[in-house]
Amino acid sequence: MKKYNWQQADWPNFHYDISRIDESLLSISEKIGFVSGKFEHLSAHLQTETMIDLMVEEAVKTSEIEGEHISRLDVRSSIKNKLGLNQKIAPVHDKRAQGIAELMIDVRKSFAQPLSETKLFDWHSILMAGIANPKLKIGRWRTGKEPMQIISGHQGKMTVHYEAPPSQHVSKEMKRFIRWFNESAPNKPNTIKFAPIRAAIAHLYFESIHPFDDGNGRIGRAIAEKALSQGFAHPVMLSLSLIIESKRKAYYAALKAASRTNEITNWLIYFVNLILSAQIEVEAQINFILRKSKFFDKFKDALNERQLKVIKRMMQAGVKGFEGGMSAKKYMIITGASKATATRDLQHLFSIKALIQTGQGRNVRYELNLTSW
């Protein structure tokens, strides 16, 4: 029995019913126009801040999907270092953070270029920099004789969710994939009209081949972003990984189902709606940055050095807010202040309406007041 898509006679001729996706494609088009309009009204400084925030979010979440937790601060420092935005090069301690940050920047800078084997090898080398594993093939396709399998469970009770083509077929499969990707780009012989559909197919196609020993998920999501950027003719403003990570089980379930057939309508429905959700998150991110800017304009002369440090730390949590709220104990840890000073500073921030207070007694917590500005 031929279990997987690449084992079937119609591979890789994916087919689907576009009529079931029309409404979502229209919604994405409308949302992109709306978000782009908001973005263009930001100052140059806020536009840069927005793009950095989105790259940081994508870098952190695409790693978390693979079970890696990297330093958000190191990712931000790496991006700003690479873009020349730090007056002095900031130290970066987590080499994984530096690698994924450099990948995010290169995906955006090179979005219009055709995909190539060299580019994919470069991405893999960037991503795997600092990985001390002599068995890992870095910057080249996998070559091992053992099957490339997606497995869950413990020893003795493992479930094989997917098995990729044998390594001896990878080079041929990737040449075909790269040719398909470039020929389906805008204004090319086999253009796929709708960028979200091309991105969805590209991601599934690449993940089905699973050409590297490691890093396939992160590079596969970068390829989806490249396809979207080419379709919209500018680097996209979204983080697919933010949405995927929040519902990781649904992502893997959709991939598993799609890997069993080359009729991929259900996969397209899933992925297109993923893109729409990511666009909604971008809108929320832009709104947050606007409120943050107005907040600092309002309170910049009313904050001492300690308060400013804490406010900036709370702001780093982004749209979802500082987890658990700010307490006197957390304030003391962040600033090194005494309990009396922390309590006094927080009460001052509350009195000028920079913070909102919740709870009572030992359970008092503070949240940023971003709704009034």
What features would you describe in this structure?
With 373 residues, this protein is mostly helical. The chain folds into 2 domains: 283 residues, Fido-like domain (Fic-like fold); 68 residues, Arc Repressor Mutant, subunit A. 56% of the residues lie in helices and 5% in strands. The protein has a two-stranded antiparallel ribbon. Strand 3 and strand 4 form a beta hairpin. The longest helix has 35 residues. The radius of gyration is 23 Å and the shape is globular. The N and C termini lie far apart (62 Å). The mean pLDDT is 91.
How would you describe this structure in keywords?
373 residues; mainly alpha; Arc Repressor Mutant, subunit A; two-stranded antiparallel sheet; 14 helices; 4 strands; 5% strand
Write the layout of secondary structure elements.
Layout: H1 22-40, H2 44-65, H3 72-82, H4 95-109, H5 117-128, E1 149-152, E2 159-163, H6 170-183, H7 195-209, H8 216-232, H9 240-246, H10 248-258, H11 265-299, H12 305-315, H13 328-335, H14 339-351, E3 355-358, E4 365-368
Antiparallel strand pairs: 1-2, 3-4
